[in-house]
Amino acid sequence: MRIAFEIGGRQYAADLSRGVSLAIPVNFDGPQPSFFGAAKATSEPVKSGDFVGDTRKGGSCNVRSYRMVPHCNGTHTECVGHIVDEGVGVADKLPGTPIPATLISVKPAGDVIDATAIHAALLRHSLIGFHRALILRTLPNGGDKLIRRYEGAIPAPYLSTEAVELLVKAGVEHLLTDIPSLDPAEDGGKMAAHRVFWGLAKGHALADARRPDATLTELIYVPDSLADGYYLLDLQVPAFMTDAAPSRPILYPVG
Fold first, then answer.
1. Are 83 and 204 in contact (CB under 8 A)?
2. On the CB side of 126, how many CA atoms lie within 13 Å of its CA?
3. Is-contact 71 37, C-beta < 8 A?
4. Mean per-residue pLDDT for 143-169?
5. Is the pLDDT of residue 1 over 90?
6. What is the pLDDT of residues 63-99, one digit of tens each?
7. Are 87 and 233 in contact (CB under 8 A)?
8. Which structural domains are found in the chain, ordered by start?
9. 251 to each of 105, 114, 231, how far by Cα in Å?
10. Which of 31, 46, 132, 219 could form a disulfide with 147 if both were Cys (CB 3.0 to 4.6 A apart)?
11. How many Å is the Cα radius of gyration of the chain?
12. Nearest alpha-carbon partner for 214 in 131, 138, 157
């Protein structure tokens, strides 16, 4: 199934049968990624009276409860509700249709993904209409990202505020990245990169955020089989009225 669309007067097409998920599968019974010292995501069968929700234990069907921290246990999408006092549901901030997206790969300078690296990558992929969403893959791109435990003050690269300012200026509304957070794990509560991304210089009032409809997706995994370039993005989350939820971004190659 192919879909045709137009951006800036130019025609494009995408094959919807060739979608690739960027979500890290959450294996509740095995290795899984984690961040900020959060406990592993776990599950257990529901018990009610004589009923047990596990067919291996005599139950008539499988019914399990799940415990996880979306921000820390795998691929998740978050909204401005992450840093404001008001309750904002991430499901309300998603685009209703697939949107144009650009995939770039960058090599951090030490612990920092700086504006220079972002600028160079965007110059190589400069179709502005595709910058509504940006997928940021860090190099090296080891498969251990699927189960890595991010621990310590700086367990992974993070974005400089200048790099985020550049993305905002480029028109990026939906940012997806394979790092666990735009900011260092321990930054004294500044959340500087997050604040730049949502346009909230200080405080925690939703009315002061200049980009309240932007979303941020962290802890994705972009397989090496996907080349840098242009795609359609279908960003899927459950209808959770929470600031963040587990998510499943799907990329469709554009031709």
1. yes
2. 4
3. no
4. 96
5. no
6. 999 999 999 999 999 999 999 999 999 999 999 899 9
7. no
8. 2-29+70-253 (3.50.30.50), 35-67 (no CATH)
9. 15, 25, 6
10. 31
11. 19
12. 131
